[in-house]
Amino acid sequence: MKKMRRSARLVDMTQHLLAHPHTLIPLTMFAEQYGAAKSSISEDLSIIKEAFESQGVGALRTVAGAAGGVKYIPQMKTEQALHFMRELIGHLENPDRLLPGGYLYMSDILGHPATMARIGKLFATAFAEKNVEVVMTVETKGIPLAYATAAYLNVPVVIVRRDNKVTEGSVVSINYVSGSSKRIQTMSLARRALAEQSRVLIVDDFMKAGGTIRGMIDLLQEFRATVVGCGVLVETADVTDRLVDEYVSLAKLRDVDVKGKQIEIELGSYFHNREE
């Protein structure tokens, strides 16, 4: 290809790294693509690395050796995460979000691409070192969160269904107890959707007692999969018998006063010992 000016090469390399997170890219690939020496590529990567870290974009990790290269790890700085979540909590505490029964309206937030991207990056930061191979959620509201997170981890998404779809072939189904209603419900996952012994990150939009996430954990046992983490956007605080022990939440619903139209939300477990 036509040799690029260094400024154009830097832009193109940056774009390639951003589009391929958690992927080891050989320096030889960049050298051949741009017709440049490896030493020049290394200098370019040093510039990009400094910019990424100073701007809170993420980290560049270099792997030495013949099979080595560079890998972009998306990361959100703690101060950026705190600012974003405090702003999001302010929106969530709007009294107009209260629904009958004390439920919280969140569909507009879950449908906002830019907001989902930032939440996805936050979850990707929290679980960056877990060697995630698949992100799992249950239909339907957790789907935007799952895809946003998977995009930054560069892994596929698996969606657990509440009923069988003929288009998905044979499925594995289990019964689970809904944490909020205590009803017996069913969830299913197509056998072809998940390879056995996969390393799975579970994400969901809301958790009360954790019955749905507990169900997904039990379902994954049928695939001999390993649950490497659970991420929840909002958890409730008024639960004494949680069905899930280990999880990361970004926000905690502390109190809902339906009559007084008051919603109290605080930062979740991810921010423990991280606040300024």
From TrEMBL:
Gene3D superfamilies: 3.40.50.2020, Winged helix-like DNA-binding domain superfamily/Winged helix DNA-binding domain
Limits of the Phosphoribosyltransferase domain: 108-258
Xref: PANTHER family: HYPOXANTHINE/GUANINE PHOSPHORIBOSYLTRANSFERASE, PUR OPERON REPRESSOR
Residue span, Bacterial purine repressor N-terminal domain: 5-74
Organism: Brevibacillus aydinogluensis
Molecular function GO labels: DNA binding
One BP term from GO: negative regulation of purine nucleobase metabolic process
Pfam families hit by this protein: Pribosyltran, PuR_N
Annotated keywords: DNA-binding, Transcription, Transcription regulation
Protein's name in the database: Pur operon repressor
Domain of life of the source: Bacteria
Family as reported in the entry's similarity comment: Belongs to the purine/pyrimidine phosphoribosyltransferase family. PurR subfamily.
Record InterPro entries: PRTase-like, PRTase_dom, Pur/Pyrimidine_PRTase, PuR_N, PurR_Bsub, WH-like_DNA-bd_sf, WH_DNA-bd_sf
Subunit organization: Homodimer.
